[in-house]
Prior knowledge:
- By secondary structure, the chain is mainly alpha-helical.
- The protein has 20 helices and twelve strands.
- The protein is globular.
Amino acid sequence: xxxxxxxxxxxxxxxxxxxxxxxxxxxxxxxxxxxxxxxxxxxxxxxxxxxxxxxxxxxxxxxxxxxxxxxxxxxxxxxxxxxxxxxxxxxxxxxxxxxxxxxxxxxxxxxxxxxxxxxxxxxxxxxxxxxxxxxxxxxxxxxxxxxxxxxxxxxxxxxxxxxxxxxxxxxxxxxxxxxxxxxxxxxxxxxxxxxxxxxxxxxxxxxxxxxxxxxxxxxxxxxxxxxxxxxxxxxxxxxxxxxxxxxxxxxxxxxxxxxxxxxxxxxxxxxxxxxxxxxxxxxxxxxxxxxxxxxxxxxxxxxxxxxxxxxxxxxxxxxxxxxxxxxxxxxxxxxxxxxxxxxxxxxxxxxxxxxxxxxxxxxxxxxxxxxxxxxxxxxxxxxxxxxxxxxxxxxxxxxxxxxxxxxxxxxxxxxxxxxxxxxxxxxxxxxxxxxxxxxxxxxxxxxxxxxxxxxxxxxxxxxxxxxxxxxxxxxxx
Length: 477
Ligand code: HEC
Ligand code: HEC
């Protein structure tokens, strides 16, 4: 054992020596910045207990490590802010173009119509951040002393910046003059700690209550969207009202397909934006990496102001609307780009959002343990849902035929495939069902589908075990 140890140390020292030569020969100019970070007297490696630590060491490691640590903290904090609060300039579209703020305010407060009272806002799935409420207000809400039927209350909530994912812009007189949207509109919910719809933020949890279609239908000038799609208002409203809670159609403004061949809505469920670290491709049909998709969404869906390039969209057969609107190459001058500079921190923060751990007692642990063995054994799920990602490391993409479903949604994306969904934290987004369109209402329905399609021959008990196992997935790895 001692002998082996010593052999390893000698090899390690040699390797380190080689690295030192390489570092020294190419890092001369780079040494002064690392000196700036202040690591005085760092000429030896304090972690090296090999006894071979005799020569001088380059002044790199601790100082640069410190840089990495401060960068990490800065990115995480900035990314959280961007995820929660940044509109990317989208108020130009949601406010100035669509006039959504006017419908929210109502005629009494300088807008149009009856206005959006908080009860209706909560009913379409908008959420309120309890931590943004002025002191005393939570107690008054609990005591029923706040008028939740008055649009003026919604305006007060917006002024306190308490509506998750919606930014109200007010003039000096307190009139709502515009609204912008944020990632958190769809990708956060709250824990309902005060009352249903009002609580602490849960970043990354999909808002499966939010009826995005109904929110857009409030906008008086939504003809602007219908115009781009080349349809009339009635047709647009038919498409939007078919989405339902927890759904949105990110491909609609590319291909103009409001409905599938079977007549159902073409919208997909809002997916989890947690537990994504290590996952290669994102969205149900694997459009690209996190920063790819963030740029896509911020520019093309939220209508923020930035730069976006994807020549794959320049396909008149697949993406006729995108081609007409020039979405494959969106350019604004650098000093007006409100998106690109935010992509690094936004990505970093998203990668840091863990899949939430299932509540104690929410699954049967003994059944889950049996399900674990089945998942990688008889049920053969792990072939694609490989732990700990529960998706394939690499190119996790499959045709509809490979998983026994239609190709419609897959073929609305460049690679014509479905991405193997990472499964951690499934328990927290059961509402709305499973698979991209929620076609399976329960996890048991999913297992039944695979059992029939792959002819797995699972017994009822085994199916239940696999379901309990899936309910157990989440929490820190
Ligand atoms: C209007 C609702 C909405 C908004 C706003 C929104 N998203 Fe999404 N997001 C969706 C939907 C729906 C999908 C699924 C799209 C698909 O598969 O075609 C999605 C997919 C994603 C995914 C892929 C998750 C996975 O499973 O790999 C990420 C990451 C994501 N969004 C991040 C963001 C970020 C960051 C923002 C803000 C820049 C944002 N989204 C804004 C609705 C929204
Ligand atoms: C051939 C690869 C493959 C195999 C094998 C496979 N899956 Fe999947 N799985 C996928 C793909 C691809 C999707 C995405 C389908 C969609 O969104 O329409 C998916 C989606 C799911 C979902 C939905 C997740 C969500 O958030 O909506 C669950 C749950 C699931 N699979 C469980 C299982 C179980 C359990 C097994 C074993 C019985 C299994 N899978 C076997 C590829 C596979």
